[in-house]
Amino acid sequence: MFPSLFQRIDGKCDALVQLTQELVRIPTINPPGDYYRPCAEVIGRRLQARGFDVIYDRAHDTPGDSDRYPRENVVARWEGRRPGPCLHFNGHIDVVDVGPGWTTDPFGGEVKDGKVYGRGTCDMKGGIAAAIIAVEALLEEVPDLPGAIEISGTADEESGGYGGVAHLARKGFFSKPRVDHVVIPEPLNVDRVCLGHRGVWWAEIETKGRPAHGSMPFLGDCAVRHMTAFLSRVEAELFPALAGRQSAMPVVPPGARQSTLNFNALHGGLPEDFEGLPAPIVPDSCRVTIDRRFLLEERIEDVKGEVQAILDDLRKTRAGFDYEMRDIMEVLPLMTDKSAPVVRSVAGAIQEVLGRQPDFVVSPGTYDQKHIARIGHLHDCIAYGPGILDLAHQRDEYVGIDDMVQSAKVMGLAAHQLLTGQVS
Q: How far apart are CA 338 and CA 321, in angstroms?
């Protein structure tokens, strides 16, 4: 146990709430990527005042980056006087759009009933604040720690992370020998260690047709009808097959322990923003975006191949059917081994702080661990942080203050163990 550290973190509860509010009140909505620099500077200024070296790094030429919406990241590093490993806490500063139906100000940071409300409180500015407070308390308690501690606030996780962690990973920020262990304070519940995530394949499929006047559709070839033929085959054949595939990965919630496919968007014919009466056209193009989540037990080649097989069969058997398929993104599933040092340290800290064994889980969706593993080739990485996973992206999003305090204790204790080599 480390009662003095825990008492110090308890004493910083008000500061933890205030820091969460300060971060949440900056509306870093992505897309388009608003206010990244001001939010990064809140983190940078605070840590620089506490002895960290601070770097701001814009991810030029990454998706969405522009002078109006620059993809800004901040990395702060504290170096001990003695050599040792480096522990990095990484959190994304972007949040999704608000949407309708809120009963609180989504960027007000209102405190009510032991919770801080607002967009990004749960996912994941409360987690960033908890990590910062944990590190501040630890360095006050043990100023002569060996090794190094880094804290980063990064862009664009909600849209793939290419302007954030992927960019920094390509520059060596998430590789040895610079960094040894990474904790991402995503909202996976305060008593869970998240080992990784399912895989994802995003693709756009376009069916082709031939235009004509809507009063004479027999002179054309409707691309929307071709698309409905594809969707019908997926509904009848692929969805039942996916439902029968179950994973040994401890994915939460349990419904995500199977393979899934979602149709993200469907567009054909008239543009979405047309005004007035519709034009009488036979559409020559129809596009669907698919979001396929897959398991460690599946190969990416097979995941793509079963969709391709339906399309190719339709091309052979349906008159006039033609298509193009374009990959948007693919990420392989991953799961950190339970024996990894960062897993053992955080799991042990949860046991000490909360007095119960942690659950080991896998996220249904990907997060920035994917870039740390595939680009940085660093596999001692987990997600652990405050917040209830099911509240992410919901209206009236909140994070519990007690959960933030408890998770800060877990992160502080785990950091001490990792840096001093006391991991059991």
A: 49
DSSP string, 61-119: TSTT--SSS--EEEEEEEE-SS---EEEEEEE--B----S--SS-TTT--EETTEEEST
State both tokens at 387: 């917040």
Q: Give me Rg for the CA atoms of the chain.
A: 24
387-392: average pLDDT: 90
CA-based max dimension of the chain: 81
Q: What percent of the chain has pLDDT over 90?
A: 95
How remote is the C-alpha of 422 from its chain's centroid?
30
What average pLDDT does range 344-362 have in this prediction?
Answer: 97
Examine the fold and report which residue of 307, 331, 355 is the final residue of a domain before the chain moves on.
331
Residue where a domain stops, chosen among 308, 331, 354:
331
Checking if the pLDDT of 1 tops 80, the result is no
Q: 190 and 249, same structural domain?
A: no
Instruction: List, for residues 23-63, the tens digit of each pLDDT value.
Output: 999 999 999 999 999 999 999 999 999 999 999 999 999 99
Mark 158-181 as b/e (b = at least 16 C-beta within 10 Å): bbbbbbbbbbbbbeebbeeeebbb
Nearest to 124 by CA among 404, 410, 409, 325: 404
- Taking alpha carbons only, the member of 133, 20, 219, 50 closest to residue 411 is 133
Given a contact cutoff of 8 angstroms between Cβ atoms, the answer to whether 271 and 265 are in contact is no
As given in the structure block, the two tokens for residue 326 are 């374009």
pLDDT tens string 274-307: 888 889 999 999 999 999 999 999 999 999 999 9
Same domain? For 123 and 238 the reply is no
- Joined together, the tokens standing for residue 88 give 């990095």
Q: What are the pLDDT digits (tens) for 175-200?
A: 999 999 999 999 989 999 999 999 99
- Using alpha carbons, list the distances in angstroms from residue 326 to 10, 320, 323: 51, 20, 10
